[in-house]
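task queued by scheduler; priority normal; single chain, no ligands, no partner chains; default sampling; output format set to structure tokens
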Amino acid sequence: MIASPVGAQAIHPLGELAVALGTRDAGTAMGLSEFASRPAAEVAAVNPKLFFQVHWSADRDVLLQRAETARAGGATALIVTLDWSFPGGRDWGSPAIPERLDLKTLARLAPAGLARPGYLIDWLRHGGLPDLTVPNMALPGRPAPGFFDAYRSWTAVPPPTWADIAWLRAQWGGPFLVKGVMRPDDARRAVDAGATAISVSNHGGNNLDGTPASVRALPAVAAAVAGSAEVLLDGGVRRGGDVVKALALGARTVMIGRPCLWGLAAGGPAGVRNVFDILRAGIDSALLALGRPSVRDLDPSDVILPADFARGLTK
């Protein structure tokens, strides 16, 4: 199990450093988004098992510079996330996120802060309130852009071609994971482009509200790859039994997103560590119930699937 890259983890004063501490103590790796609130070098100093994630958010030269800066800081693998687009509106129903903590915003948020003085004091003890900048997207010699400035800049970048992915793979040269594959034909294209790993992911379901679950796409993608690249599952893992299902259906491991954020918000580094402890206990329970001595002994027969489970996802 690996902590999935998630941008702007400033829900805790330590942000991604807290996730690095928790995953380090859990003995696992973490993904770090280019939209993270902490530089890759700081995070890798805490947990050297660091995978740096980029979207196709800039031109080739800038994207490669970000990746090389992360590698110089200690990142050991590159994740390229492709499962994201920019529709004109969303129906998430979530409250607006302020672009900056100016006086007007601070006045609006003051009642919530005063109602939780311990949370506010913890932030102040760690250097002050978050500034919502993204240091891993800074150009050499330039200050880090704001999260929303970087996001808006990304929306103007044309989506990549498979030739672009192959170019970045060749430039990087090391472990290279393509994240966001939901179709067998795209899995084969990712392998042809040089991917050493593929993450079956629908971006947590927040790009299209009607997208199939990642686990439905997993068996066909694993069959299409046929061992030529590692296959991971990202999305929908909430308990140890979910991990067991994914491994039985062809995944080598899973990436954990929302549960890590819940642990981070509730308990900082210890909360992140606890998420992995709970999942591992659930894995042990599921294996015991299945009569399997190890996750390496799992196979598809351990999961009973509806007849139409992978409908529309097999080509």
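post-processing summary
- Residues 99 and 148 are 6 Å apart (CA to CA).
- The chain has a mean pLDDT of 91.
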